[in-house]
Amino acid sequence: xxxxxxxxxxxxxxxxxxxxxxxxxxxxxxxxxxxxxxxxxxxxxxxxxxxxxxxxxxxxxxxxxxxxxxxxxxxxxxxxxxxxxxxxxxxxxxxxxxxxxxxxxxxxxxxxxxxxxxxxxxxxxxxxxxxxxxxxxxxxxxxxxxxxxxxxxxxxxxxxxxxxxxxxxxxxxxxxxxxxxxxxxxxxxxxxxxxxxxxxxxxxxxxxxxxxxxxxxxxxxxxxxxxxxxxxxxxxxxxxxxxxxxxxxxxxxxxxxxxxxxxxxxxxxxxxxxxxxxxxxxxxxxxxxxxxxxxxxxxxxxxxxxxxxxxxxxxxxxxxxxxxxxxxxxxxxxxxxxxxxxxxxxxxxxxxxxxxxxxxxxxxxxxxxxxxxxxxxxxxxxxxxxxxxxxxxxxxxxxxxxxxxxxxxxxxxxxxxxxxxxxxxxxxxxxxxxxxxxxxxxxxxxxxxxxxxxxxxxxxxxxxxxxxxxxxxxxxxxxxxxxxxxxxxxxxxxxxxxxxxxxxxxxxxxxxxxxxxxxxxxxx
Length: 524
What we know:
This protein is an alpha/beta fold.
């Protein structure tokens, strides 16, 4: 899998929802906390500027998404019901009166002004996903909520049009993706380490000023600035994937400012990157097994792959990449990530079958490469969004751990045992922060939020990217009386956007009527 955050480790997270939208025409693991002392000392009542009053926002018609934001709307402006604005925030919250950066915002106003409840702010994950580009494409999923809420999202700092982190250029990124990320010998290992260093060096050269300040603590303080600028006394929030981590850190810093909050596809706050990557490896393996069983029981059972055939295909790709109509070759790494990307939603399982049939029976990699490109932020024109650079920069600004090649090789047996398909890639991705020029903020996250309003925490038993057990650990971390745990017995990354009627009703009743679901509520 691509080197990125274990939280929802790979950049799979941020791309997951956009992937479903793009492929199915339907509607973001981890680092670790501030050490207890680090996080608690950074709690704020607004004295650091996090809760400072803001000038009124100037909302105007939205332009089409930029290259940095991605192409989730096929390059078109989102429509006249959407408005965009910029919010200035401090680059460094230790110097709130110093240099400012601007955050890109988007909103659609509530339809029923007489019953309006305020704003509902979304973060869809990543880290590195553009909320400005993503929310309009998913808005129909939240249509009922829009009756009484302004739907609002934003590009977090370092992401999209909010002071985007820049690393390699497009052609350099293509070239880097051709290098074997799961080395089998000393020569391949040297090449992989050199490529990783070149990427890190490019980030340091092109984004040196930003890298110390794209951490999740700073992004959470930005959200309190956003809350104030929107004119809301409390932050009503819907966080998905990495967005659950961001929301939990916000609740830790500003517990008294939490309104109605939902965390869906929940990151495990107790895991360091190695634990998070291993947990996610097991999650994707579980989802792959569920996909294979479902396919074998379907009408197209005769065309279904088996795990042994997938493993055999990947071994062949290690030395013989497959041709595609684009003229590019499908490598082993790209195939692994293409398979993983299709597991984000049951709606995209059919594309996985199609891609594997092409690769195994026709010797072509077209569909798997499209799946990989959607995941990596590469547009059809060969231009990349900043999803991957932002994902790495935010992850490394948060996580203090820095792993070596020897660390990885010592863990490889455990990762291979967890998954013969995803294990090696997930293990080697632990090197993504090796040599990073900025020290991370924490080892694991402190999400204690005593005094917060109730927060609905949703775990999905079949979630590949944020395994189910993480929801319970997040609930425990938030503290007694804060979290209301809800379980969805289903497939895919997240629960609400699955369309399950029980899940939608449970969440909507809480957000619209304030009725907290009973502890242990289960939907299937």
